[in-house]
């Protein structure tokens, strides 16, 4: 046998699983399709040793796993810049404000928004992130989209627009795409719905000095014998005593395999024997969100001197939200515009020049004409990435969690599943990836001790024994 385990995908999930198994004395091969590690974490070098993130970036006080992992490899954090006024465009009207929502939204819309957030918060608390299908009213919640829920529960147009904008920015999907049960699961796993939307008081409180991708780079640097990049896995064959993993130019054999790639991409690998339909159907129902992250780079963060935080939100503009993502010392000035959900689907059809002009125009409307005068503009279209195919995470469409949720983590024969979508703590985020990698490693180590894997196996759930 070549190795005890093969791990597919060197994002945070696969890197974590590999690290844990190696520490337990296992021999591991970590196969990564790209020529870099980090997956949905990717950096952009600004010069002078500084870098910013084109992928995952923020974390909060409740994000204990990513904080702990970063500490273990010596990556420091700093506070997100969040001083000064914010700008919002709601159904074409411009507001400046502090806090979560513009107070001038109106005397009826404001309490309407507040009530809706409270309602979602209460519902989310009742959804266990590890088994959302067991939540009270799970089927009812899973048969609604976020949009249909809003139509029943949010009375005013501005409150509805602001709420769906916030969800589109946080989940990268249109409100009509998302199962309400998924919205609640993700919110509860993240630390709460309001927490998910907040900056300083929420999940966007901190960033990593040198970028979040440097956590992945440093984890990988400790796995030189395990990691192989440029290894695109196309097939997984289960045999009675082993599993054979193959791709162009390589074949590897081990006792077990951990598939640590996004759910949709896991469904594109060819399995022999074919995967139980129950699991394959899950991979057809958890599409990746849609996001293009754009960096507008300036000599300095000029908006700070104007008393602005740099945050611009828009219910109908080219991006849903933009933040000040300058390095810790504020030089150079960087704004990150998140083109997400329906906006991403529209803007992906434009040429890069048209996209740049649309995004800069949106920033200039929010922060003044200086915002259009960039020294550099960089975009990362995650929809186009062959080994990601969208982000921030794979979301559940209506009916998926109640019908196929148990297949998310259930091992199939010698195949175990990781990846942020299978995490529990902060699923969908960096923390979820780490949580899933640790859990997958624990499952393998438990099998070694002769224990049954935690949770039920897919073949038991389906009666389909492989
Ligand atoms: C724009 C953006 C913003 C985000 N913002 C945040 C944020 O602020 N905070 C936060 O916590 N999270 C954020 N996220 C989400 C976070 O980045 C992800 O949840 C996390 O990085 C996922 O890690 P993973 O290991 O599960 O998957 P991935 O990072 O996707 O890793 C999977 C790996 O598998 C590889 N792979 C795929 N197919 C194959 C194959 N066939 N063979 C071999 N290898 C393969 C890929 O190349 C990749 O390296 C964001 C993501 C994006 C893209």
Automatic annotation (TrEMBL):
Pfam families reported in the protein's UniProt record: Amino_oxidase
Which keywords fit this entry according to its UniProt record? Answer: Oxidoreductase
Q: Where is the Amine oxidase domain?
A: 12-445
Is the keyword Ribosomal protein assigned to this protein? no
Residues that, per the record, bind FAD: 32-33, 233, 421
So where does this one cross the membrane? none
Instruction: Give the family this protein belongs to, as stated in its UniProt record.
Output: Belongs to the flavin monoamine oxidase family.
- This chain belongs to the protein called Amine oxidase domain-containing protein
Species annotation: Actinophytocola xanthii
């Amino acid at each position: 046998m070549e190795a005890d385990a093969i791990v597919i995908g060197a994002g945070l999930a696969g890197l974590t699983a590999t690290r844990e198994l190696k520490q337990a004395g296992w021999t591991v091969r970590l196969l990564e399709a790209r020529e870099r590690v980090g997956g949905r974490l990717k950096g952009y070098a600004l010069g002078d040793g500084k870098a910013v993130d084109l992928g995952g970036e923020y974390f909060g006080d409740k994000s204990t796993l990513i904080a702990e992992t970063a500490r273990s490899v010596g990556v420091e954090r700093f506070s997100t810049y969040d001083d000064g006024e914010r700008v919002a465009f709601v159904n074409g009207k411009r507001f400046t404000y502090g806090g979560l929502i513009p107070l001038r939204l109106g005397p009826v819309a404001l309490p309407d928004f507040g009530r809706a957030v409270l309602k979602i918060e209460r519902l989310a608390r009742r959804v266990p992130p590890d088994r959302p299908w067991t939540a009270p009213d799970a089927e009812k919640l899973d048969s609604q989209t976020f949009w249909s829920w809003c139509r029943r529960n949010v009375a005013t147009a501005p409150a509805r627009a602001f709420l769906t904008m916030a969800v589109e920015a946080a989940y990268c999907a249109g409100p009509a795409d998302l199962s309400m049960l998924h919205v609640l699961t993700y919110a509860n796993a993240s630390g709460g719905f309001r927490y998910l939307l907040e900056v300083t008081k929420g999940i966007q409180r901190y960033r990593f000095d040198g970028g979040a991708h440097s956590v992945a780079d440093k984890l990988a640097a400790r796995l030189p014998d395990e990691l192989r990049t440029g290894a695109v896995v196309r097939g997984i064959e289960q045999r009675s005593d082993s599993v054979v993993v193959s791709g162009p130019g390589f074949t590897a054999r081990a006792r077990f395999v951990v598939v640590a790639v996004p759910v949709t991409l896991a469904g594109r690998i060819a399995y022999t024997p074919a995967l139980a339909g129950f699991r394959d159907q899950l991979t057809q129902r958890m599409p990746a969100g849609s996001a293009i992250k754009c960096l507008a780079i300036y000599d300095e963060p000029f908006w700070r001197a104007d008393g602005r935080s740099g945050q611009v939100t828009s219910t109908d503009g080219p991006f849903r939200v933009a933040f000040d993502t300058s390095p810790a010392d504020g030089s150079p000035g960087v704004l990150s515009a998140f083109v997400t959900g329906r906006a991403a689907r529209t803007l992906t059809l434009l040429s890069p020049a048209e996209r740049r002009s649309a995004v800069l125009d949106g920033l200039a409307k929010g922060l003044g004409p200086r915002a259009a005068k960039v020294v550099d503009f960089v975009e990362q279209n995650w929809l186009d990435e062959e080994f990601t195919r969208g982000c921030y995470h794979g979301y559940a469409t209506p009916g998926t969690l109640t019908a196929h949720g148990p297949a998310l983590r259930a091992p199939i024969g010698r195949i175990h599943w990781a990846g942020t979508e299978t995490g529990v703590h902060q699923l969908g985020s960096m923390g979820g990836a780490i949580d899933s990698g640790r859990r997958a490693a624990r499952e393998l180590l438990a099998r070694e001790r002769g224990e049954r894997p935690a949770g039920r196996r897919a073949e038991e759930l389906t009666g389909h024994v492989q």
